[in-house]
Amino acid sequence: MAIEVRIPTILRSYTGGEKAVQGGGETIAELFGDLDARYPGIKDRLVDGEELRRFVNVYLNDEDVRFLEGIATKLADGDSVTILPAVAGGAG
């Protein structure tokens, strides 16, 4: 099963600078495990135990996985996963 994963700039040091990588798995959790096997350390930046880290947003085909089944969200061949760090700030 091939899943395209779009990597944010802040995590590209784990993927050798690649903007997008291929991964596999039946769920988001398995996908992150697959990515961590090839890009050690990336999973720890995305999840804390069995939950997404607070300031990490993950989208499956443009749907926020927090509104689906979180990291237990099922994947299908050809899906696209986008990882985005949350951005905060504003005028002072």
From TrEMBL:
InterPro entries for the chain: Beta-grasp_dom_sf, MoaD_arc-typ, Mopterin_synth/thiamin_S_b, Sulfur_Carrier/Prot_Modifier, ThiS/MoaD-like
Pfam families: ThiS
Source superkingdom: Bacteria
Protein name: MoaD/ThiS family protein
